[in-house]
Amino acid sequence: MRLYLLALNPTDSVTEGFLPAAARLGLDVTVLTDQPEAHRRTYPETEILECDVRDFRAVITRISTHHRPDAVFTNSDHLQTPAALAAAYFGLPGKDWRATLRAKDKAQMRRHLAAAGVDTVWSAEIAEPVALDAPYPCVLKPREGVASEDVVLVEGPEDLVTRSKEILDRRPGTVLVVEEYLPGELYTLETLGDGQVRHVLGGFHTELSPPPYFIEERLVFVPAHPEPVVAQVLAQLDALGVGFGACHTEFVVHEGRARLIEVNYRAIGDQCDLLLARLLDVPFFEHVLRTHLGEPLPADLGVRRDGAARLEYPCADRAGTLTEAPSATELTVEGVHLAYRPLRETGERHDLYRTNRDYLGVLRATGTDQPAVDRVTADFLAAQRWEIRP
């Protein structure tokens, strides 16, 4: 059976998650990408074909002139709609392209939820710097952005003009969304469905950098959110038509009310999916691929429920060259498994991005006791050193 996997840049989710899972399932994999050399360097044993993967017509043509597909899949935010349209063209299981579009287009998501009577959030789209009469403070972000990039809190009309000009100068032609700030604690809900059955895998409590930016600095695993909160989030996902394959949903809870921040219709990234598979002790990546092959999910995934986990992302706080940093490490301390992976090489110079591109590394910690996980994590990080010189 042949799996076509659509990708932009190489990611840990694909390299360490989905490709090994495809091999375990005995699938023949063809990666379609607009960055073929980067993928060939990362996994030279896999077939890589160049393709304008953002264009569903190019994807359909490339597949049609190669081998017959059994599944078309992507874990990229940007490529969910092209993948869904290609899967539909070939009569293969996949996500509803309308749902992928609603999830990707943050303005359309707000409009659709309001029209469905599920939730109404004040929002507007702008293509140039403009002072709006809005319920400040507001959040300004690219309509189809990812990873908190160019997401910023604005306090008033003048701040909106200044911030939007900065973003549009960097990203000409981008459409921005201005929406009311939703107060509350930030959480995620991780789900896996086959179109008929949907499993809730738990989620994370996310801690952010101080405003005006929204960098995710650490996540703590939440085995089960309160049932009323889960019900509210799932109702909003149902209204969007989201329920096939993996989905990573970000939401806030304020006075018992759950409101969506964004829906990432894919597996959670930044190595959280790798942690999740280990913590829950399930073949998560295989399950995701099986749904795209048309196989139903089991009624019971056999998820392990006694896990505790934490992820930490040491961040650069200035532009410059990374001159000292810990190397990759994996060890067990007091029953807590630690896996540290650097995300930036020493000797590299970077600007300060105010997004997850500032991450210097990621520490995954798993165990069965949250206080022990927290303590061991803090001790490990305190013993490390990252140095950035101008």
CATH architecture of the largest domain: 2-Layer Sandwich
Q: Termini distance?
A: 51 Å
The total beta strand count reads 20
Task: Note the overall shape.
Answer: globular
For the largest sheet, list the strands in their spatial order: 13-12-9-10-11-14-19-17-16
Radius of gyration: 21 Å
Helix content: 25-40%
The CATH topology of the largest domain corresponds to D-amino Acid Aminotransferase, Chain A, domain 1
Provide the CATH superfamily of the largest domain. ATP-grasp fold, B domain
How would you sum up this structure, described in words?
By secondary structure, the chain is of the alpha+beta class. It has three domains: 2-92, Rossmann fold, CATH 3.40.50; 122-180, Dna Ligase, domain 1; 185-389, D-amino Acid Aminotransferase, Chain A, domain 1. The chain contains eleven helices and 20 strands. It has helices at residues 12-24, 36-42, 56-64, 80-89, 97-104, 106-115, 157-170, 227-240, 272-280, 284-292, 370-382; strands at residues 2-7, 28-33, 47-50, 71-74, 123-126, 138-142, 152-154, 176-180, 185-194, 198-208, 216-222, 244-254, 257-264, 308-312, 320-324, 329-333, 336-342, 349-350, 361-367, 387-389. The strands form four sheets. A nine-stranded antiparallel β-sheet has the order 13-12-9-10-11-14-19-17-16, with helices on both faces. A four-stranded parallel β-sheet has the order 3-2-1-4, with helices on both faces. A four-stranded antiparallel β-sheet has the order 5-8-6-7, with helices on both faces. A hairpin with a 2-residue loop joins β16 and β17 (336-342). α3 crosses α4 (80-89) and α4 (80-89) packs antiparallel against α5 (97-104). The mean pLDDT is 96.
